[in-house]
Design goal:
The chain is an alpha/beta fold. Helix content is 39%, strand content 20%. Strand 8 and strand 9 (379-385) form a beta hairpin. Helix 5 (89-104) packs across helix 13. The protein starts with 5 loop residues before the first strand and ends with a helix. The relative contact order is 0.07.
């Protein structure tokens, strides 16, 4: 098990893997799919199909026909239509997508995105009143609206129809909208329930345009990846095709934005997730998200570049604000009793736009549910993040009367409450998590897709995984477990040494591994440790150079009985006198130096045992482990390595025997034919002497006057009947094991 997670090792159906291989799917890819419980060839084909796909019929969605008819009526009657969006990347892309669709249809359309800080999320009465009074007769919400019951009622009273398109959780009461387009509508039967807000908007666009609008899929890909919805089924189709469009014909603004980040490689889901989506989100976090609409719809390069630079600045500012708040929160935790509590609740004069990011950082560090709040006019408003499947929404719902407002799901929530209720809420949630801990495993589980060794990690291995792209929620990057690697180096980097870099190695190569999160979890990992590393693999492109890199998910430090002190000229005088020292040569029982042959005479228990040289038999190692030591340290210094000195093996013995058989009189004069024998057998004189001794012990030959004479009555040969061969084989086995194998393999071979 790892330091951070309980690991779930994969199990494979070998017959299914063979079936996949018959379709020219590599064994590694087959294993990864199988580890993810994919066992149906029709599902597999969906992942690899190159056929042009349009997803499901949009009219399968509840109220779709009704919505299309109303929008067409509004266009025909030249009514003013408004698209009411949201301030995150999903909301911004949804708004742009529908606005562009309606413009192409000749609609009189405008847009509105509420200000996070002044209006909050979703519909609000003041905004709706202002919008309707301006002459708008049809409002279409995107990525919001399903909870706007009172706001929709107000719109109805003011004579404005509202079409809701949304994907968020449907509440007990739905708004009385003209039409509600939602993949999970209780009266609907849409095949795929996990569309992002932009995906729902796209379905409406598809229905309105009566063609599959693949030219809008760049927006769908961005919003879908940004909102971290499931990258399966229909979303997978949209993201795959959307990424292709982003590479073929990117919007001028996005092109400028990527240039500012020096991104000149192929745009994939990682590019969107790490460079595009956070920057779009930063607009609404730091200011009004309306800038995002102008940016994505810009056609003039000068305007696009100016907007991209402004967004880049917002993102830099967002990072700085986040870092400052994280530092302040950590300081408050470390200098108070908050660190000892089950649930961490911290408030301050904080920027509301980044509180969710801050909460995620604090959860990662302290492994507890976290509430981060901005305090204003006696009201605390902020974001909560949870951990270990502790349902923060359910816990908050039990004391809903103490909140002014809240919403969310299992691991994340937004909320506001009167500051006077702080102690009551903190106390209740503290007790809830205490109860949760009593009945729950305080370690999340992590599935392993494939188990391998460092020697198998290569560019070829990484490139072979590309057929699985795109990755995302419910279809993450493959988690690779690299077993039995040694930590060659450990270092911290970053402006404040806040990131971790490990270099791991085996006999054939090494690999750089990095972690940007919760590096304190790996404090116990030290240089020379043997570890199992759970990671994802990537290419690090820097200054025009590319190298393989692992992103650390988790680490297991191997606790071995046998520890490595070989090949380092270890000073045995440093060994504690109370420890047992075993050797073939040194016998000084007063100082706890014993010969291997005297192991059975030991009458004391030893926590630590040192092997100064190599025992002649594996039997000694078994007897050592039976002493139940805490550790056995291998020094294993030898004056001569006999397996290098004596070139003897079964093949050479067979070759020598065949040479004897091939002579006319079944005799070989060694003195006369020595050079030939050594050349054919590829051995030396000392080795030849032992080979002759082995044959004598087996009664295959007699040896007189330097002549090998075959015994005419020889029987079938069993080399194990030769004491010299058995002794030699045993010594060679021990030398190969203790001098040539890694410490991980030694422990594995000896099953300890």
């Amino acid at each position: 098990m790892g330091i951070k997670y309980n690991w779930i090792y994969p199990s494979y159906d070998e017959n299914f893997i063979k079936e996949l291989e018959s379709y020219s799917i590599s064994k590694n890819i087959a294993k990864i799919l199988n580890a993810r419980s994919i066992t149906d060839m029709t599902v597999v084909k969906k992942y690899f199909s190159d056929e042009y796909e349009e997803g499901y019929d949009p009219f399968l969605m509840h109220d779709m026909q009704k919505a299309v008819d109303r929008i067409n009526e509004a266009i025909e009657n030249e009514e003013k239509i408004l698209v009411y969006g949201d301030y995150d990347a999903d909301g911004i892309t949804s708004t742009v997508l529908l606005v562009e669709t309606l413009i192409s249809m000749g609609a009189n359309v405008s847009s509105y995105i509420p200000n996070r800080f002044e209006e909050g999320y979703g519909p609000n009465k003041e905004a709706f009143t202002k919008i309707i009074n301006s002459g708008i007769s049809l409002i279409i919400t995107v990525d919001n609206g399903i909870a706007g019951v009172e706001e929709v009622d107000l719109a109805n009273e003011l004579g404005c129809d509202v079409i809701v398109t949304d994907h968020h959780k449907i509440q007990d009461t739905m708004p009385n909208a003209y039409a509600i387009i939602h993949p999970e509508h209780p009266d609907g039967n849409y095949p795929f329930k996990k569309l992002a807000g932009v995906g729902v908007a796209f379905k409406l666009a598809h229905a309105l345009l009566e063609i599959f609008p693949d030219f809008l899929l760049d927006l769908v890909a961005i919003g879908t990846i940004a909102d971290m919805v499931s990258i399966t089924d229909e979303n997978r189709i949209f993201v795959k095709q959307g990424l292709e469009l982003l590479n073929e014909d990117p919007r001028i603004g996005l092109k400028m934005l990527l240039e500012l980040s020096s991104i000149d490689t192929k745009i994939d889901e990682q590019t969107v997730g790490f460079y595009i989506a956070p920057k779009l989100n930063s607009i609404g976090r730091m200011d009004s998200a309306k800038l995002g609409l102008t940016f994505l719809m810009a056609e003039d390069p000068v305007t696009a570049k100016s907007l991209a630079e402004q967004i880049e600045q917002y993102n830099i500012e967002r990072k700085k604000v986040t870092e400052d708040i994280v530092k302040d929160v950590i300081n408050k935790i470390e200098t108070s009793d908050k660190k000892e509590k089950n649930v961490i609740m911290v408030s301050g004069k904080y920027h509301e736009g980044v509180l969710g990011i801050v909460a995620s950082n604090i959860v990662e560090k302290y492994q507890k549910p976290v509430f981060i709040m901005n305090e204003k006019d006696g009201v605390l408003k902020g974001s909560a993040r949870s951990i270990f499947d502790f349902n923060i929404y359910t816990a908050m719902n039990k004391i809903s009367d103490l909140f002014l407002a809240f919403g969310g799901h299992t691991l994340a929530a937004g909320f506001s409450f009167d500051a006077s209720n702080f102690d009551k809420i903190e106390g209740f949630l503290d007790n809830e998590f205490e109860e949760f801990k009593k009945h729950s495993e305080l370690k999340s589980s992590k599935n392993i897709d494939i188990v391998t060794s460092l020697e198998d990690i290569s560019y070829q291995f990484l490139n072979s995984l590309d057929v699985l792209k795109p990755y995302g929620m419910d279809f993450e990057k493959p988690s690779v477990l690299i077993e039995n690697a040694m930590v060659l180096n450990k270092a911290y980097f970053g402006s404040e040494k806040q990131y971790l870099r490990l270099t791991i190695a085996d006999e054939v190569g090494n690999l750089e591994c990095i972690s940007f999160k919760d590096i304190s979890a790996f404090d116990k990992v030290e240089k020379n440790d043997i570890i199992d590393l759970l990671c994802t693999l990537d290419k690090n492109n820097f200054n025009g150079r590319s190298k393989l890199q692992a992103h650390i998910i988790d680490i297991n430090i191997k606790e071995f009985l046998f520890e490595d002190l070989r090949f380092m000229n270890y000073d045995i005088s440093k060994i504690d006198s109370a420890s047992l020292k075993l050797s073939k040569y040194k016998d000084d029982k007063d100082s706890n130096f014993y010969l291997y042959k005297d192991i059975d005479k030991l009458d004391a228990d030893f926590e630590y045992i040192y092997l100064l040289d190599i025992p002649n038999s594996k039997d000694y190692l078994e007897r050592i482990t039976n002493l139940n030591p805490k550790k056995v340290f291998l020094i294993c210094e030898e004056k001569e390595i006999l397996s290098d000195l004596y070139l003897i093996d079964k093949d050479r013995l067979i070759k020598l025997f065949n040479l004897i058989l091939s002579t006319k009189n079944k005799q070989i004069n060694v003195a006369q034919q020595l050079d030939k024998l050594l050349s054919v057998l590829k051995t030396n004189v000392d080795s030849l002497k032992i080979m002759i001794q082995i044959f004598k012990e087996l009664e295959l030959i007699t040896f007189l006057n330097n002549t090998i004479i075959l015994n005419p009555n020889y029987k079938t040969v069993d080399l194990k009947k030769s004491p010299s061969f058995v002794k030699m084989e045993s010594i060679f086995e021990m030398e190969n094991l203790l001098l040539k194998e890694s410490i991980a393999n030694i422990n594995k071979i000896l099953e300890v």
